[in-house]
Write a structure and sequence with these properties.
The chain has 11 helices and 15 strands. By secondary structure, it is α/β, with parallel strands linked by helices.
């Protein structure tokens, strides 16, 4: 399953190439609470088909009525892009299901150039990060490759959206936990790859849509073209596989690097990497372990939920409170238990 942005752009391109009328809507600005972040996109076809989302659903219903039911698709034939605001009044916010005080500003592009979308998708499919700049007055779209992700911006005159290839997850180890984590990553729009040189594991892999690589994990990481939208998770529980892969990962720009294991195993891993491979506490700062957020998880499925939540937080730039850190939470639990034991004596 590819990311929703790529799906919207690809679908809009294909509809336009087939001669359909298409409205491309982008969330340009928000005030107060908002169901969708800036940069979120949806494509609306003249027959009412929709891909993507700009709200919880009510705004989409209004757009379908406004541009298809009411005008038979003719409302999509306008030229210059339009800026439309929803939720300015309390009544409007309630009508469109927006949170209390929420307001959205949308940019509508009517029948954008399919050639431009095709060029954009070509860059994205090749792994490039692309800056798409729309000048509203002229309806001109300019594409250029970008060296790093940038914040979405809209000043009323130009809309700048930096789009990249889908997020990727590389897992080391093809056990049960990896299968659950892969499933969750897929429905969150990640492209998933699992690497394991052990045939007894990789030959029994059962999750469709995952690329399976047989090889030494450090070689796979080295050849993976890791970028800022890649996360790498070691799940094999075998230091011969995990450690060398993690060493390679730490040399990369991956946004998340972690390894499964208890507090004791995680500390032993750090000590090994420092003693035998010349790492330091500073160089290991990006290495997460124990991974996941603390939800009292015990089963592979619950642990996968915990790990996926931490990956998504890192992807979205969210700093999690220390209370959900596994090490901190379990240490506090130990202290509480010791206190209870001492009081019971």
């Amino acid at each position: 399953m590819e990311s929703i942005d790529l799906l919207v752009l690809r679908t809009a391109r294909d509809w336009l190439a087939a001669g359909e009328q298409v409205l491309l809507a982008t969330v340009a600005r928000t005030w107060g609470s908002s169901p969708r972040p800036v940069g979120s996109m949806m494509a609306l076809r003249n027959d009412g088909r929709v891909v993507g989302s700009v709200s919880g659903g009510c705004i989409e219903d209004d757009l379908i009525h406004r541009y298809t039911t009411a005008h038979g698709g003719e409302g999509m034939q306008g030229g210059a892009p339009e800026v439309v605001r929803y939720g300015v009044t309390a009544d409007e916010a309630h009508r469109f299901g927006l949170p209390c005080g929420g307001t959205l500003e949308l940019v509508f592009e009517f029948n954008p150039s399919w050639q431009s979308l095709d060029e954009l998708l070509g860059h994205l499919d090749s792994g490039s990060l692309v800056r798409r700049r729309l000048t509203l007055a002229t309806n001109h779209v300019h594409l250029e490759r970008s060296p790093a992700p940038e914040q979405f911006s809209f000043d009323g005159l130009q809309m700048l959206n930096t789009l990249g290839p889908g997020f990727r997850l590389l897992m080391i180890g093809a056990g049960a936990l990896a299968e659950y984590l892969a499933t969750m990553a897929l429905f969150n729009g990640f492209k998933v790859t699992v690497c394991d040189p052990r045939p007894e594991y990789i030959d029994t892999w059962s999750v469709n849509g995952v690329e399976c690589l047989v090889g030494m994990p450090d070689d796979v990481v080295r050849d993976f073209a890791v970028d800022l939208r890649t996360c790498i998770v070691a799940l094999s529980h075998d230091p011969k596989l995990d450690d060398l892969a993690l060493l390679e990962a730490l040399q990369s720009p991956a946004f998340y690097i972690g390894a499964i294991g208890s507090r004791r195993n995680s500390q032993q891993r750090r000590e090994r990497l420092i003693e035998h491979f010349g790492e330091t506490e500073a160089s290991l700062k990006r290495l997460r372990g124990p991974i996941g957020i603390y939800i009292g998880s015990k089963t592979p499925a619950e642990i996968a939920v915990s790990v996926m939540a931490e990956i998504l937080a890192a992807k979205n730039g969210v700093v999690l409170p220390r209370t959900v850190d596994v090490t901190q939470a379990k240490t506090l639990e130990d202290q509480v238990a010791q206190t209870a034991d001492s009081e019971a004596v």
